[in-house]
Design goal:
The chain has two helices and no strands. The protein has about 60 residues and is an all-alpha fold. The model has no long low-confidence stretch (mean pLDDT about 80).
Length: about 60
């Protein structure tokens, strides 16, 4: 992953190194590792918000 092409991005070196390790294990580019992580975090947050703030117990286990 060529970080010299990034503009206005500050990611801690240890996080980039972890993503590189995951990418090597999964045979995926580091950029895909970051994309997956961000998408997954977004999904998890949506599920959390739905279960935390919605009074309906039926929505707690529902996929968003």
């Amino acid at each position: 992953m060529d970080t010299t092409k990034w503009k206005s991005v500050a990611i801690r070196k240890e996080i980039v190194e972890l993503a590189a390790e995951i990418g090597a294990k999964t045979e995926r580019p580091v950029s895909n590792v970051f994309a997956y992580a961000v998408k997954r975090l977004n999904e998890d947050l949506k599920k959390y918000e739905a279960s935390e703030f919605n009074e309906s117990p039926n929505l707690k286990n529902e996929k968003i």
